[in-house]
Amino acid sequence: MSRTPEDLLTSTTEALARVRADAPLVQCLTNSVVVNFTANALLSVGAAPAMVDVPEEAGPFATVAGGLLINLGTPAGEQREAMLEAASAAAEAGTPWVLDPVAVGSLPVRTPFAHRLRDLRPTVIRGNASEIIAVAGAGAGGRGVDSTDDVDGALDVARKLASTTGGVVAVSGPVDAVTDGERVVRIANGDVLLTKVTGGGCALGAVMAAFAAVTEDPFTATVAAVTVYTVAAELAAERSAGPGSFAASFIDALGSVGAADLAAWARLS
Amino acid sequence: MSRTPEDLLTSTTEALARVRADAPLVQCLTNSVVVNFTANALLSVGAAPAMVDVPEEAGPFATVAGGLLINLGTPAGEQREAMLEAASAAAEAGTPWVLDPVAVGSLPVRTPFAHRLRDLRPTVIRGNASEIIAVAGAGAGGRGVDSTDDVDGALDVARKLASTTGGVVAVSGPVDAVTDGERVVRIANGDVLLTKVTGGGCALGAVMAAFAAVTEDPFTATVAAVTVYTVAAELAAERSAGPGSFAASFIDALGSVGAADLAAWARLS
Amino acid sequence: MSRTPEDLLTSTTEALARVRADAPLVQCLTNSVVVNFTANALLSVGAAPAMVDVPEEAGPFATVAGGLLINLGTPAGEQREAMLEAASAAAEAGTPWVLDPVAVGSLPVRTPFAHRLRDLRPTVIRGNASEIIAVAGAGAGGRGVDSTDDVDGALDVARKLASTTGGVVAVSGPVDAVTDGERVVRIANGDVLLTKVTGGGCALGAVMAAFAAVTEDPFTATVAAVTVYTVAAELAAERSAGPGSFAASFIDALGSVGAADLAAWARLS
């Protein structure tokens, strides 16, 4: 069960090769702010984005997509309807799907809605520490939203949440943590510039769905996605003069990052 | 009727000069993924974008716009209402309009909706081979959606579709083809990076509307738009390290591409 | 009351430092075309964007946000409902808010809607000359929309509008003008490339909200926002090959522009 950093690096490199070989179809129901950046991140890493997010289409499409992302950043009414349709269809069809509960906590529409989606047992839930604690709610520790925004502080909640959903939970921060309730892997890559580009976190959710589409084990897929994504951020930061040029370099780097970069840069533990 | 590559090059160069001189107002009802890229492509090539896409405004605006794009990438309910309004108003007012039937085929909302718009006789229909075949449906050959995604394989359907609508049909692919039912022109420009940027095809639909706004003959306008757009892609690819830097370089190139570039690079037949 | 260019430069530099120190939370209900660019502009200048724009969330959030932008570029029905909610909540809670009446004039949905928002007395109204004249309508001079699109031609209307709302009015153009009904400051910075990137004006509205969030006097905040923004545009233009590379350089420049740049470049009068 427990694997060495070398094992994780190998499985990450293999997963990236499969994404590029298979070009998995990734359906995204995501927020209006980051939808363009997300599609470009998927295209560059080797996946095929499809932003099919209207009711009556979202459900059927989720049964043929390789992976699905549901991101709650700007959850308009018609999109929420499509999200429920897609999540239910994915759950039934066995399509791996990622829930990104953006800004869930006290906002009164998305918070109960996120709980409803959580109960459909997402393959992966991805968020910062506060969002993970909020999406867990009473069901996984009873702490609700609190001021903790430290990855390690959220890790207990994340483990319980993963045990409840039977899926994977990824907590973003300076060091990212991924857990399936038992195993925990930390990835110490990334760059602060990724937090200065809108969608820096949101597009990662889509990339997780791409990796989950081509990988048997969702935990391995999630670790691989975080590692590839954050190593690409470091490569891009070296070629950037600020967040605007970083955004373009990062999309470039998602396409060019390879096994040698991962071997040289990945800090997995 | 039949024109030489030299004639086509001349009319393309003249059309580009008119776009830059007249800055035609191009109304776009397009998908949320590419709307920013599309507006920037229009601005750079010299047109004036206006994304007026709410009901009660879309119709009146279509009567004063120089050209109109309707793109079905993310067809939410309110936008579909505005699209019908705009297409009807454009048809009545004589405003040239472009239909881009993104992902039409088996998706159950957009497919019948695309057929309804097709029956309003768009000035130009633009899509890849599968989309053109799907939008033609039974009305132009009875083949419906099939697995063909080869430009030449779709060309018969495209010619029939153009004859039915009385407009122009453009089929995207490694070599693009434009037909008005009789004439066929092939444009062998472009770069694979254009397929790695979301909106690479969608923004072309908007540029076609800009060229149609300032050109008497829609067939000539469509050939010119494809040629300028795909030559700009080749210029940009030379200055790019990947799809992120390509997207920025391509917007730059749409602004700088000129008669000499077209003469040196255009491969029209 | 009247201040020298040196005073204005000092207060601008101080306001920028406060934005970077405080990272004010700026809520944006803006159009789909520019929402990504706007969020990236806010992040780069040092603010924290939050595009909370669904009904039932927009109102409560406006009471905790540091500043609010309402931009009418693509005013879909559900977003209009959220805009009214947010503007009313901001007005009641004392959250400074900016109204950007994009393309208001003859369009039949947004024009009366803009008048309704105007009557809620925005802290700042920002637009080009035609938009300012249109939003003023009969209430501030009775001229309605006319063909004037010259900043100086709109200045009388802008002063009256500011007196009516008790707020600030900023008129965009080659030389920008800011007035609170009595004081008038002109800022002669910027670059034509800013007009070739979609959202070049819209994102300024969001930056105004960020500056207003950390500055006691909205007039000072607005002058500071325009100055920082347009000086950053000049810095970026020097490093750009066209509008695509300019967009990235401009986001970079919003993050790097500092006191020395402002002292060297700002043309305030």
Automatic annotation (TrEMBL), chains A, B, C:
Gene3D superfamilies recorded: 3.40.1190.20
Keyword Transferase: yes
Listed EC numbers: 2.7.1.50
Pathway(s) this gene product operates in, as recorded in its UniProt entry: Cofactor biosynthesis; thiamine diphosphate biosynthesis; 4-methyl-5-(2-phosphoethyl)-thiazole from 5-(2-hydroxyethyl)-4-methylthiazole: step 1/1
InterPro entries for this protein: Hyethyz_kinase (IPR000417), Ribokinase-like (IPR029056)
CDD domains: THZ_kinase
Binding site for substrate: 51, 199
Top-rank taxon, per record: Bacteria
Molecular function as annotated in GO: ATP binding; hydroxyethylthiazole kinase activity; magnesium ion binding
GO BP field: thiamine biosynthetic process; thiamine diphosphate biosynthetic process
Catalysed reactions, as listed in the record: 5-(2-hydroxyethyl)-4-methylthiazole + ATP = 4-methyl-5-(2-phosphooxyethyl)-thiazole + ADP + H(+)
CC cofactor: Mg(2+)
Residues the entry annotates as binding ATP: 126, 172
Keyword list, A-Z: ATP-binding, Kinase, Magnesium, Metal-binding, Nucleotide-binding, Thiamine biosynthesis, Transferase
HAMAP family per the UniProt record, alphabetical: Thz_kinase (MF_00228)
Function: Catalyzes the phosphorylation of the hydroxyl group of 4-methyl-5-beta-hydroxyethylthiazole (THZ).
NCBIfam families per record: PRK09355.1
Membership in a protein family: Belongs to the Thz kinase family.
Name under which the protein is recorded: Hydroxyethylthiazole kinase
Organism name: Aeromicrobium phoceense
Gene encoding the protein: thiM
